[in-house]
Every structure is written in C-alpha cells, then in structure tokens.
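Async update (no meeting this week)

Hi team, since we skipped the sync, here's where things stand on the single-chain job. The sequence we agreed to prioritize is pasted below, unchanged from the tracker. I ran it this morning and attached the output directly underneath so nobody has to dig for it. Comments welcome in thread, and please keep replies under the output.
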Amino acid sequence: MDRKLLSAVAAVGFVSVAAVSAPQAPKAEELVAYTVVDYAIPEPLTGEPGDPERGRAVAINRQLGNCLSCHAMPIPEQPFHGETGPALHGVGDRLSEAQLRLQVVNSHEINPMSMMPPFYAVEGRHRVAENFEGKPILSAQQVEDVVAYLKTLKE
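Output:
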C-alpha cells in the first residue's frame, strides 16, 4: 500500500468503519434482541457458536470489523495497527465472553464517550452512508465469530 492510500485510510478511520456494512448484514428490524446485564451480554446472539478463524478474518478485514484501525493486535502479518483504542493482546484473559460481546455489539453501553462504533446497533452511529442507514456493521454471527476470536487472545 502506498503512503497516500495509507494516509487516506487513516484520515477516514472511524467514519469509514461506521459507514461500511457486510453485504449480508441484516436490516434493523431483523436485529436479534439482547439483554445487557452488569456491563455484559450473557447470551449469544445466535444459536451457532462463534468461529475464531472467521472472527479473526472479520477483525482484520479493513472493510468489515477493521479492528486494526484502532487497536494493536497480535497479527504481525498486518502492518499499521492503531493506537486509539487499547491493545487487544491478552484481552481474552481480561474480559469474559459476555463482556467482549457487549464491547463489540455497542461499547457505548459501557462508555458513552467511546470512539468505537457500535458494530451491532443502528442508533448512535454518525455520518453513515444513506444505503447503510438502519443496518448494523456486522451480522449477529460475525459478532459471535469476533468474540470467539478475541477469547483466544491470551497472555
């Protein structure tokens, strides 16, 4: 990637993440209901267990999760990890699966000032392209896959 393109990617940062949606993302009325309990979502959003390999692919995909734009991660083959959010090394030891699920679904439930976009919520997003309005960034299964991947990140 050349420096001009990298600069453009960095400049767009948060806005591009919030405006990108998976092609198979559900419409707002199809969102799975969830309950927040003690800063966590204890119940999975799907009946299918999350797959860590698929979750890793979503996390590093610059068109989906794009976690690398804000977080340093143990993914040495990918350059240019972000420093805006906390490093995710060892996050699987620090947070439970239920806590990780809420962080991915909507970190604003924990910290209303969070810069992290809500990946499975449609409220609280800003500057979203019209054709992505009312759609989450990730599907419920993609959330579960990312959570499964994050659980593998141990010290």
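Quick observations from my side:
The helical segments are 3-19, 52-60, 91-94, 97-106, 140-151.
The mean pLDDT is 82.
Reply here if anything looks off.
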